[in-house]
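In response to the reviewer comment on reproducibility (Comment 2.3), we provide here a single inverse folding case reported in full, input and output, so that an independent group could reproduce the run without further information from us. The structure tokens appear first.
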């Protein structure tokens, strides 16, 4: 099974203001950090919708010595919920998750999950863009993301948002 490593290098431009809400193809999204453990039930439901094991996702959120995990959720806002988002009251489910892992000398996006009903609606593009902007503000010069060669959709996604194939692509057989 082959793995491709993609890398995004910052071009020196300073990231703009990171908004809490972003317009997407499906309307307004609220991007906010994962509230531990308040969001764990919502994350478990998202993982199950994506045919993932919730324990794996929740384990990824745990920072440990030499490794810090940043994570954000995307929630759909409607005109009725802009002043009091339902996600803050636990009345809705997240549409997506992105995790950014910071280790000495390396930044990487380890998870991007999007609810199956919301795929191809810019949710992944928005949350990955948010994670990249946060990484740059925190001092990252580049961010990597690994995916299986056989996941054609993932390979196309990373290329479409400006990641380049790393010259030392990984390979595991």
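Designed residues, in position order:
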């Amino acid at each position: 099974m082959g793995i491709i490593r993609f890398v995004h290098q910052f071009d020196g431009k300073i990231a703009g203001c990171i908004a809490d809400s972003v317009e997407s193809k499906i309307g307004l999204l609220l991007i906010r950090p994962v509230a531990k453990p308040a969001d764990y039930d919502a994350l478990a439901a998202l993982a199950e919708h994506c045919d993932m094991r919730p324990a794996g996702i929740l384990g990824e959120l745990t920072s440990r010595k030499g490794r810090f995990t940043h994570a954000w959720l995307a929630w759909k806002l409607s005109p009725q919920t802009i002043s009091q988002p339902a996600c803050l009251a636990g009345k809705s489910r997240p549409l997506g998750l992105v995790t950014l892992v910071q280790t000495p000398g390396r930044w990487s996006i380890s998870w991007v999950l999007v609810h199956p009903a919301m795929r191809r609606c810019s949710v992944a593009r928005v949350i990955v863009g948010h994670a990249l902007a946060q990484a740059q503000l925190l001092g990252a010069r580049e961010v990597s993301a690994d995916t299986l060669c056989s996941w054609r959709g993932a390979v196309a996604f990373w290329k479409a948002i400006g990641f380049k194939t790393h010259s030392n692509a990984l390979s595991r057989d």
